[in-house]
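Q: I'm writing up a methods section and want to include an example of the input and output format. Could you take the sequence below and give the corresponding predicted C-alpha cells, formatted cleanly so I can copy it straight into the document?
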Amino acid sequence: MEKEVIENYSKIFFIGSFIGVTLLSIYLMKSYITTIIGAVFLSYVFHPVYDAIKNKIKNEKASSFLTIIIVILLIIIPLLFAANALIKESVNFFYNTKEINIAPIENAITEKFGKDFNFQEQISENLNSISLSIARSASGFVISLPKKILEFFVLIFLMFFLFIDGHKLVEKIKDHIPLKPQQKKELTQRFDNVIYASIYGMIVTAFVQGAIASLGFWIFGIESPILWGLVTVIVSILPFLGAAIIWLPAAIYKLVIGETFNGVGILLYGVLIVSTIDNIIRPGIVGSRAKIHPALVFLGVLGGIEIFGFLGVIIGPLILSVLTIFFDLYIVEKAHDK
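A: Here is the clean output for your methods example:
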C-alpha cells in the first residue's frame, strides 16, 4: 500500500515537473516563437532541395549549408529588394496622393446629394496621421535592428540543424503520438496535404496574382504599381473577393475622375486575368490533394496575422485545418467503436 502511494506521488511529481518545465521553456523562448516557426516552415519547404543536394555530395553538413545559401538567394535577398521597393513606392504614393485633384469627385457627389464635401482636407489629415505612424514604426525598427539581426542568425542556425536532424525529430514525435498506426498514417498524410495546399496553393497563387496585378496597374496608369501589387499578394490569400479588393476600387476611381480607358482597362484586366488566374493556377498546383474550406482560410489568415505577423498567413489556416483533421479522426473512431 505504501509503495503504491509513493508511486502515485512520484507520477504526480513527474507530471507536475514536466508541465512546469514545459511552461518555463515556452516562456523562455516566447520572443523567438515566430523565428522558430519560420525556421521549421522553411526547412519543410526546402527539405526536398536538401535531399537532392545530399544525394549528390553525400555530406549532411555541406548539404545543409548549401541549401541555406539557396534559401537566402531565393527568398531573403528578394524580400530585401521588395522591402526597398515597397519603401520607395510608399514614399512616392504618399506625395502623389497629396497632389491628386479630387475636385471632380467632390463636384459629382455635391451634385448628387446637394451637400458640400471636403475630402481633400480629410485626406490631408489622414496622410499626416499615416506619416507619423510610419515615422514611429521606422524609429522602432531602427531601435530593434540588433534584435532583428539576432533573429536572422537564430533562423539560420535552426535551419542548419533542422535540415540534418529534422526527419529524426519528426519520426520520434510520430512514434510517441498515442494513436493507432492507421490513425498516425492518416494524420501524417492529411497533415502533409494541408501544408502542401497552404504553401504551394495559397502562397504561389498569391504571388503570381500580385505580379500580374502590378503589371496591369503599370499599364493602366495606377500610381505606385509595385506597392499595390504587394498589397494584392496579401489580399489574394483571402477567399471570396481576394485581389478584387484592390483592382476594383482602382477601376472605379479611374472611371470617376474621367479616365474611362484606364478604368475600363483595369476592370476587364482584373476580371479576365487577375481574378481568373487563381482558378487556373491553384487547381494545377494543389489538385485534389487537400481542400481547405474558404471560411477556415479567411478566419485563419485574419487570426494568424494578428498573432504571428506575416507568417500567420500560412500558420493560421494550417492550425484550423489540423483541428478539422483531429475532429474527423475523432468522428471516424467514434463510429468505429459503435
